[in-house]
Design a protein that fits this description.
3-stranded antiparallel beta sheet; about 375 residues; kinase; protein serine/threonine kinase activity; 12 strands; Kinase-like_dom_sf; alpha+beta; Transferase(Phosphotransferase), domain 1; 5-stranded antiparallel beta sheet
């Protein structure tokens, strides 16, 4: 589908749900600083876009829910900024994952590329990546904001480790594991019907005295995802996939600092040392702690602080919980216990603490790889009832 054009329903203009779904808009003028506001109107190909959201602070991409007409299923369409589309590393990595003949149980726990094509717009040619539609991500998966039971933590952790082991087996480092990039779905729900709230539009109003930015959108739209979709889901039907490989690198080719979120950085990243796939293991340890407790392991405040001050605070928080010699002491176990539900189980807590300790080694050479972690008693043993 090279050079394809695609009609998008611009979410900033319609005032009603009906307008949002069925109206077609003339191509809107765009600026170079806001290239994703509107792209093309010429023809619909195989996809009809019906919803919109923007991810990322720098507007490098936009995300759309689309109906894949050929297969009659809903998909997620990622449209990259034109100057991010040439020689795109994410596409290269996604194609490598898709082409892999590796028979690995983790392959189904990494988001798969369904299609890719180019879209001609007023600011150039945009790379479009098509993925399965997922219900939610780890950032908005629960409305109750409560800690989780052992069986839940074990099931999600196992799927994440399987996906990560598959990625690492192919010599790829994700570099950007975070709640927003862990995708959740319930088997048998999303492909048939997108479970989204009707869009709500709010016109942008500028405060008195502020300079109007012409590149800013005229309207803002709040998330259409329902919160708490997974709170009462059948645990055996929850599917977890590692998503967004936009920051991923091939292990032999990384020549720049990874895009890992600040509070999830491994010690070697903070100290600007040599790094490898072990940074993903550290990050996953932080995420599993957060999955279990619904609290970040290292709650860093960054507002108004310099990079040096943030690093210093991060290192201090690590020193309060983790021993440099790799031993996980009573301080960490108590810190974990205090944040878990009372019925998590004493044995489960001990197993989880040991499990996390293997990922949260300050020396990256001592961190257990994903393949080894999959055999840990916390995952293979039956959680204490």
């Amino acid at each position: 589908m090279k050079g394809a054009t695609l009609e998008l329903y611009n979410p900033f203009l319609p005032k009603s749900v009906d307008d949002f779904k069925i109206r077609r808009f003339e191509k809107e003028s765009t600026t170079s600083s806001s290239p994703l506001r509107s792209i093309a109107r010429e023809a619909i190909t195989q996809y009809t876009c019906t919803t919109y959201s923007t991810r990322g602070m720098r507007l490098l991409e936009s995300w759309h829910m689309a109906n894949f007409q050929l297969l009659q299923r809903y998909v997620a369409l990622k449209i990259l900024k034109a100057d991010e589309s040439n020689n795109n590393k994410e596409l290269e990595i996604l194609l490598k994952l898709s082409a892999s003949g590796l028979d690995h149980p983790g392959k189904c726990h990494v988001i798969e590329l369904l299609d890719h094509f180019e879209l001609n717009g007023s600011n150039g040619t945009h790379l479009c990546l098509v993925f399965p539609a997922m219900l939610s991500d780890g950032e908005a998966m629960g409305a109750s904001r409560r800690p989780r039971q052992a069986a839940y933590v074990r099931a999600i952790s196992k799927q994440l480790l399987l996906g990560l082991d598959f990625i690492h087996e192919l010599g790829i480092i994700h570099c950007d594991l975070q709640p927003a990039n862990i995708m959740f779905s319930v088997v048998g729900t999303v492909d048939d019907k997108p479970r989204l709230q009707p869009p709500e539009f709010s016109p942008v109003r500028w405060l008195e005295g502020m300079k109007i930015d012409e590149s800013a959108p005229e309207y803002l739209m709040v998330t259409q995802r329902h919160e708490g979709e997974l709170d009462n889901a059948d645990l055996t039907k929850i599917m977890v996939k590692i998503g967004d490989l936009g920051g991923a690198v091939q292990s032999q080719k990384h020549d720049q600092r990874p895009v890992t979120p600040t509070a999830l950085r491994a010690p070697e990243l903070i100290h600007r040392n040599v790094w490898d796939s072990a940074i993903d293991i550290w990050t996953l340890g932080c995420l599993i702690f957060q999955l279990a407790t619904n609290e970040p392991l290292f709650p860093l405040g960054t507002f108004g602080l310099t990079a040096e001050q943030i690093d210093k605070e991060h290192i201090y928080q690590m020193s309060q919980l983790l021993d440099e010699n790799g031993q996980m002491g009573e301080t960490f176990t108590k810190h974990l216990t205090d944040r878990l539900p009372s019925d998590f189980g004493a044995e489960n807590i001990q197993h989880l603490a040991l499990f996390l300790s293997l990922m949260l080694q300050q020396n990256p050479e001592m961190r257990m790889p994903a393949a080894g972690l999959l055999n840990h008693v916390f995952l293979v043993g039956e959680p204490e009832s």
